[in-house]
Design a protein that fits this description.
Blueprint: E1 22-25, H1 29-37, H2 41-52, E2 55-56, H3 57-64, H4 68-80, E3 84-91, E4 97-103, E5 108-111, H5 121-148, H6 150-157, H7 165-174, H8 176-207
Parallel strand pairs: 1-5
Antiparallel strand pairs: 2-4, 3-4
Protein name: Helix-turn-helix domain-containing protein
Keywords: Membrane, Transmembrane, Transmembrane helix
Transmembrane segments: 179-197
Length: 208
């Protein structure tokens, strides 16, 4: 009779998990713990194997040709250093739970130097303003092109070519130029919000 327990389902790899890169300054205290945890070749092989594919301790031992006891020792240290974590639980045919280990970050980067690794929000806002300018110019060109097609329509309707400022603004807001402007602004705002939540905030938390 086959077991009703799941037997080694596919575990999500680094590319499939919503995790960010880990940036650590060599001057930080965290770097000491990380360097201590990966000081041995075995620990680095274990870390590389987990990045390649989430695995159990026995699978990692087979992959790097080491004993399960040795691998388990280094796994505990790598977890304590917040480099690996249990990402899933598999079950053996006997129903025994087996922890599946995967990396806690999309990449591990140790850096040295005074330059801040945190993305600059000032630079990002400058790019946003530049994007807004491009959107504004593009929307005006769309509006002018659309207006160039209007004289023949007004002539057919017997309308005057002269418009007040209010009428011109209203025509822009309700015409293709206005649509292009608001669509472009929404795209720029969405990209900035995505950058802020996916890049800036995680980087600030890591360097805080």
């Amino acid at each position: 009779m086959s077991s009703l327990l799941p037997l080694e389902p596919s575990a999500a790899g680094v590319a499939d998990r919503d995790i960010d890169p880990k940036l650590v300054d060599l001057a930080d205290a965290e770097a000491d713990e990380i360097l201590s945890a990966i000081a041995s070749r075995t620990a680095r092989d274990i870390l590389a194997a987990a990045y390649a594919e989430p695995r159990t301790a026995s699978d990692i031992a087979d992959a790097i040709e080491s004993s399960v006891q040795n691998v388990s020792y280094h796994l505990d240290r790598l977890c304590d250093a917040d480099l690996l974590e249990v990402v899933e639980t598999w079950y053996s045919e006997q129903g025994r739970e087996m922890a599946v280990y995967g990396p806690t970050s999309a990449a591990l980067v140790l850096y040295a130097g005074a330059e801040q690794s945190t993305p600059s929000i000032t630079t990002a806002l400058e790019r946003v303003l530049g994007g807004v300018g491009v959107v504004g110019v593009a929307s005006l060109l769309v509006h002018r092109r659309w207006r160039a097609l209007q004289p023949s329509v007004r002539a057919v309707r017997g309308e005057s070519a002269q418009q007040s400022v209010v009428d011109s603004a209203s025509a822009f807001a309700t015409g293709p130029g206005g649509v292009a402007l608001w669509t472009g602004l929404l795209v720029v705002a969405g990209l900035f919000a995505l950058w802020y939540w996916r890049t800036y905030r995680p980087a600030r938390r890591r360097t805080a």
